[in-house]
Every structure is written in C-alpha cells, then in structure tokens.
Specification:
Layout: E1 18-21, E2 27-31, E3 54-64, E4 67-72, E5 76-79, E6 89-96, E7 99-105, E8 110-114, H1 117-124, E9 137-142, E10 147-149, E11 157-159, E12 168-170, E13 174-182, E14 191-194, E15 202-208, E16 212-218, E17 223-227, E18 238-246, E19 251-256, E20 259-260, E21 272-273, E22 286-289, E23 293-299, H2 305-314
Antiparallel strand pairs: 1-2, 2-3, 3-4, 3-5, 6-7, 7-8, 9-23, 10-22, 11-12, 13-18, 13-23, 14-15, 14-22, 15-16, 16-17, 18-19, 19-20, 19-21
Length: 316
Amino acid sequence: MTYMSGGHLVKHPRAANFAWRCPNGMFLYWFHNHGGTFIQANHEWLPYEDRNPVWLMAGREVETPEGLMLEWSQPEILLYDDDTYVRMSYPDLVVEDGRYYITETQKHTARVHAIAPALLDGLFTQWENRTVARDGLLLEVAAPASEAPMPVLPRFLERDFSSPTHGTKDLRAGFSLDLWLELPSLAPGQVLLDTRVHWGQGLCLRAAENSTVEIVLNDGRQECRWTSDPGLLVAGARHHLAVIVDGGPKIISIVIDGLLNDGGEARQFGWGRFSPTLREANGAATLRIAPAVRHLRLYNRPLRTSEAVGNWRADL
C-alpha cells in the first residue's frame, strides 16, 4: 500500500492493521509506521514487535487513470504505552453521536479510547490545511537574524514533592522547532540552531552525515539525538523542516516538506525515542541562528503532524 498513486510505501510490521470507512465518506487506518526488510533477517519474533505506539492516518478516495484509489494523509500518534514492550492491537472503531472511539487490547485488558476531535479534524482536513499554527508559539524569527532571546522550554520531568520519596514527576511536555532553511551545501557539521552552553547542555540542530539534519538534546546529565531520513534534503533548495519532541511517548519525529519521516528504505524507523530520564533541553539564554535558516518558529508543545503539514503548505 502506498500513500498515494506512485507514492512511497506505507510501512507496517507483522501485526493487525485496519482501515475503516467513516460516516463522512473518508477512511481511518490503524498501523504502526515502521518495518521493511530490516525485520526479516532476525529471530522469529522480531516481526511481531514494536506495536507501540499506534499511528492513525486518514484516507480519501481519488480518481486515477486506474480508477478510484485511496490516498492517505501523513500519520499521527494515536496511542502509546510507557512500557515499550507492551503491544496494543486487535482494534475496532466505534462512532456514536459524532464521537469516534478506538477499542484495543494489549493481551491483558480490553480498553476503549475517545479520539481527540482536534486530531481527527486535522487528519480529515490535512490536504486543504494552509494555516500556520499559532497555539503555543513562543518565538518567531525571520531572516536575517544571527541570534534571538531563547524562551524557556517546557521541562520533561521535575521533582514530585507530593510523593513521599520526592521522586520523578513526568510532565509529558514537549516542544517543536519549525523552520524554513536553505543549505548551500550538505556538508556535515554545519550548526543551524544552537543554545548549548560550554558543558553541552541545551539543544542543537545541525547538518549530519548522509545529507540529513540532526537534533541534539542535552540536560547536562545525558544527551539524546535523532536524525532525519537521508535523501530528502537538496543543497541550494529551500526546505521546510519540523522537529517534534513529544514528552508523552518520548518520541522525536521529523517532518520535511510535508512528509513525516518513516525511515524509507534506509532504516526501520523514521521516528526515534529519547531517554525517559532526560529532564529538559534548556541551555543558554540566547539562541544562535545560522544564515541558512530563513524563518523559525518555536513552540512550547509538540505539534501534531497535521499542523506541521499546514505550516509547510502555508509557505513563508
């Protein structure tokens, strides 16, 4: 199955996947958004792994020379479990009084989840959305700018003083970087955005090997990083890039020119997990900005994929 006629393949391991027709005539598809030949050469259970998180995308019927076909949106994370070995599956869709619900089980408990209307609306209207997201916008900078005051990003964790042990409180917070960039070359090591202090704490977005970009997050205790899929950036061309750091499932996802990175043929996963013990990504009070960055928006929350696509469609 492809996202559109002649488009790239939808990735899914060996697990239940379902497409449901909705009352509005569109479709919803449950899948796990990874896979490929990478899982074929390993032990017998590996193709059944990684059913967490669950992803959801919308489909619509389109006319093609071959007849009616389904065209799919870019996907959103629907469900996740903090235990990455837990596998959610065997779903069904329930629609009642205009509300959408998903049922599932993880081999022990059967559950029903209401789907957030904003997530559904974003998926169903993703093809037409040309609106820049404003909710949670902390900073907007247009070129030329070599630096800007850096807002404080939401922390992922803090101390829980209501607990007898004063242990960890997971805030399930996140943030997003949304930018237009034009790299004269794809040489690795070029720093695009940087708030790191001299001991490394902060964040950095830079060009990396294989014509990718890499996000680096450092809380002064540990460092996490993830790269975009190779082959999507072209030297001298203008690209839209959204880096979504979601402290709920602890996942970094990257959207380039309206396409959520899924690993393609280069790797099993296009989205990556960061450490559940990473406390924050705050660094210096000044954000350093490279000339290749033409426009920047910084959000105090993880954008939905549909919002990142809308920012791309809205252009500069």
